[in-house]
């Protein structure tokens, strides 16, 4: 009997099952509950979070930096964006948010797959970083400063760098390149749209119709036909108001 008890105690003293261990205190056997190890909880948390999620969140957060500028330019009824000529294929304003949210999410998934591939990917990630930085510059230039030509140049550079990114991503992880295909289509469309806006709102001496509407014109040597048309319209409104009174 004593030998059996000793054997059971010896086994239970080293046995760990589901976070429990056992020790002998005289003739009684006590169960000791172990607190989950911090590293174990961290590992479990990491396992519960998809590996691509942090990358997508970071890309979305970066993209949101230009959101206030875009909203200010497109939402207000009196904004310059609604008072300048736009191409017939300009999308409605509500399209921008869901499209860019989806695209930034796909960017994060694509980059995460490249990083997790484990193959040499330094050049691919560096090129993507340059491309993403250019992407974040576009909204402040187009919607914030009304620099349509400069924004068009950024779009062209975006297409050029994206071509290099797609090539390198495909060599590392083909699916990551396919995930960026919708972004390539949208970027191509946005470049054509930007070009059409430039054509409808020509910039002369640094001024265009958008800057007139936004009150950002530099009068004097920069006076141009668009500004003349604006002044003429204001005079007509003032004359009509005077006649009515």
Automatic annotation (TrEMBL):
Annotated localization: Membrane
Location, primary (coarse class): membrane
InterPro entries: TspO/MBR-related_sf, TspO_MBR
Single Gene Ontology BP annotation: tetrapyrrole metabolic process
Bilayer topology term: Multi-pass membrane protein
Annotated transmembrane regions: 94-115, 127-145, 151-170, 177-197
Record Pfam families: TspO_MBR
This protein's UniProt keywords: Membrane, Signal, Transmembrane, Transmembrane helix
CDD domains referenced in this protein's UniProt entry, alphabetically: TSPO_MBR (cd15904)
A GO cellular component annotation in the UniProt record: membrane
Protein name from the UniProt record: TspO/MBR-related protein
Taxonomic lineage of the native organism: Eukaryota, Sar, Stramenopiles, Ochrophyta, Bacillariophyta
Keyword Ribosomal protein among UniProt keywords: no
Signal peptide region: 1-19
Similarity field: Belongs to the TspO/BZRP family.
Gene3D superfamilies, per database record: TspO/MBR protein
């Amino acid at each position: 009997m004593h030998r059996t008890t000793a054997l059971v105690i010896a086994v239970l003293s080293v046995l760990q099952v589901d976070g429990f261990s056992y020790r002998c205190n005289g003739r009684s056997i006590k169960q000791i509950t172990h607190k989950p190890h911090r590293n174990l909880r961290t590992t479990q948390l990491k396992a519960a979070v998809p590996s691509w999620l942090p990358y997508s969140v970071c890309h979305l957060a970066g993209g949101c930096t230009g959101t206030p500028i875009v909203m200010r330019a497109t939402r207000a009824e009196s904004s310059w964006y609604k008072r300048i000529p736009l191409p017939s294929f300009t999308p409605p304003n509500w399209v921008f948010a869901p499209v860019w949210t989806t695209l930034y999410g796909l960017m994060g998934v694509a980059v995460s797959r490249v990083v997790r591939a484990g193959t040499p990917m330094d050049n691919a990630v560096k090129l993507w970083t340059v491309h993403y930085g250019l992407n974040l510059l576009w909204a402040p230039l187009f919607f914030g400063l009304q620099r349509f030509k400069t924004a068009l140049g950024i779009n062209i550079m975006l297409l050029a760098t994206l071509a290099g990114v797609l090539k390198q991503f495909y060599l590392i992880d083909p699916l990551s390149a396919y995930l960026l295909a919708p972004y390539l289509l949208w970027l191509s469309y946005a470049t054509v749209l930007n070009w059409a806006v430039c054509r409808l709102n020509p910039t002369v001496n640094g001024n265009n119709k958008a800057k007139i509407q936004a009150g950002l014109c530099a009068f004097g040597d920069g006076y141009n036909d668009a500004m003349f048309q604006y002044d003429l319209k204001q005079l007509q409104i003032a004359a009509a108001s005077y006649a009515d009174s």
